[in-house]
Each structure stands twice: as structure tokens, then as C-alpha cells.
Amino acid sequence: METEFTPFASFGGGLMIGLGAVLLMLVLGRIFGATGILSGTVFAEAREEMSWRLAVVLGMVLAPILIFAVSGSMPTLTVPVSPAMIVVGGVIVGFGASLGSGCTSGHGVCGLSRLSVRSLVAVPTFMLTAGITVFVIRHVLGA
User: Fold this and answer.
1) What CA–CA distance (Å, rounded) separates 21 from 108?
2) pLDDT band, very low/low/confident/very high, at 47 (cuts 50, 70, 90)
3) How far apart are CA 94 and CA 92, in angstroms?
4) How many Cα neighbours within 13 Å face the side chain of 139?
5) Model-wide pTM > 0.85
């Protein structure tokens, strides 16, 4: 399966994620970790934090609609697995984020920029694990 090379869209998306992380830290003093934000929304940690958490989650959900409004077409999304496997993957990622004291966005975008030792260990671990997983799935299992 080939992945389309989209350097400008990827760069723009990265800039927006970075800007969002900086603004959240600057305005509210909070770290932009997607899993932590979602978890804090579902398992309401503090009522006074619910509004900004809901705004972030709604922004993530409504982003494709904004893209459609601007471009006239929905982003193409191909998921080569069943809905059941998506749920299983989500549970595994959620467990991993809990075990790793944060998700890839929290560690990679915010943790590294703050020189967090935990993130300096977590991010290379994520990358190594991802590389091994891709190698095994594509070259050992042939999927």
C-alpha cells in the first residue's frame, strides 16, 4: 500500500498542531495531548476544564467539515481493516497511552519541546516500536 506524498498539507497541518499546542500552553498552561484531553472530557476530571476540552475534541471531529467547506471535497480516507479491528486498535492505543503516561502527540509535540526526560525516552520508543511493527507486518507477515 503506497502513501501519497503531501509535503505542503503535512507541513501546514504540523504548523497548526504546533500553534494549537503553543496557544493552549500560553493561554491555559495545559499540555496538548489528544488522549489526555479526550480522557479528561469523558472522565470529567474538573468541571471548569470541560469547556476547553470539549472545544478541542469538537475541533478534531469537525475539521473534515471545515475542509469540505473550504475545498469542496471531503478528505479521502481508506481504512484497510474492519470496524472491529479499529475498536481493538483504539483500546490498545488507549492502554498504551495510559501505560506511557501520555500519547504520542503529548510526548512528541509538547514533551520534547519542554525537554521532558519522560518524553525523550517515550518518543524514540514509539518510533522504534512503529518501525518494527511495520517491518513485521509488511515483510514478515506479508500483509
Assistant:
1) 11
2) confident
3) 5
4) 6
5) no
